[in-house]
Design goal:
The chain is α+β, with helices and mostly antiparallel strands. It folds into 2 domains: about 70 residues, Glutaredoxin (3-Layer(aba) Sandwich), CATH 3.40.30; about 120 residues, Glutathione S-transferase Yfyf (Class Pi), Chain A, domain 2 (Up-down Bundle). Helix content is about 60%, strand content about 5%. The chain has 9 helices and 4 strands. Strands 2-1-3-4 form a 4-stranded mixed β-sheet, covered by helices on one side. α1 links the parallel β1 and β2. α1 packs parallel to α3 and α6 crosses α7. The longest helix is centred in the middle third of the chain and has 35 residues.
Length: about 210
């Protein structure tokens, strides 16, 4: 079985989720950086790997995939190591639901409309779009509230063990927590704060998500 290749920037939340899963499985892999800030994700050769110009793209044993959730499930099914989805249908459905919530309702308000204008744009010499950040507060707060409810008192979103949902949530919530808005919102989410403390101690997180 060949070594998988992940195409995308190391700082991407979705690239991080994929690499976290590979690390949890104990799978060595190659990261091929894609300069998204320079527009390389919209140009050849990346556009042949991902026709919608997003990241990551993934290659393994002659197979090519894109969309992080599909890549994550492939990693869990193909590689040996600890299972990264719960064992019961209901628990798997909950984990899949959390992953879908991240994609549909979490990434845009937390990353695109809060972290990027609040942190990334100023770091590149630009000005924060305050209206965009303000408009993101309510949907981001709803996202955090729902994650808090879904997690409940469980150690992880898969119950007792880490699952793909945890690895999908973590990079997005980490970026959101790096903003004043995220810090304020998480004050009302004690379950999530405890979860962050637990998951940040994992070797995969320390290796793939340096502070």
């Amino acid at each position: 079985m060949g070594e998988p290749v992940v195409h995308g920037p190391a700082f991407s939340t979705y690239v991080r989720s994929v690499r976290l899963a590979l690390h949890e499985k104990g799978v060595p892999h190659q990261l091929v950086e894609v300069d998204v800030l320079g527009g390389a994700h919209k140009q050849s050769p990346h556009i042949e790997r991902h026709p919608f110009g997003k990241v990551p793209a993934f290659e393994h044993d002659g197979h090519r995939f894109y969309e992080a959730s599909a890549i994550l499930r492939y990693i869990d099914e193909v590689f040996p190591g600890p299972a990264l989805m719960p064992s019961t249908p209901a628990a798997r459905a909950k984990a899949n639901q959390v992953m879908s919530v991240v994609d549909s309702y979490g990434y845009a308000p937390c990353v695109t409309n809060t972290f990027i204008p609040r942190v990334l744009v100023p770091s590149l010499g630009g000005q924060t779009d305050v209206e965009k950040v303000e408009a993101a507060k309510q949907p981001a707060a709803l996202f955090v509230k729902e994650l808090e409810r879904e997690l409940g008192t469980n150690p992880f979103f898969g119950g007792a063990n880490v699952c793909l949902a945890d690895l999908h949530v973590l990079p997005v919530l980490t970026y959101y927590a790096a903003t004043p808005e995220g810090q304020a919102t998480l004050e009302s989410a004690p379950n999530l704060r405890g979860w962050l403390s637990r998951i940040q101690k994992r070797p995969s997180v320390q290796a793939m998500m340096p502070s």
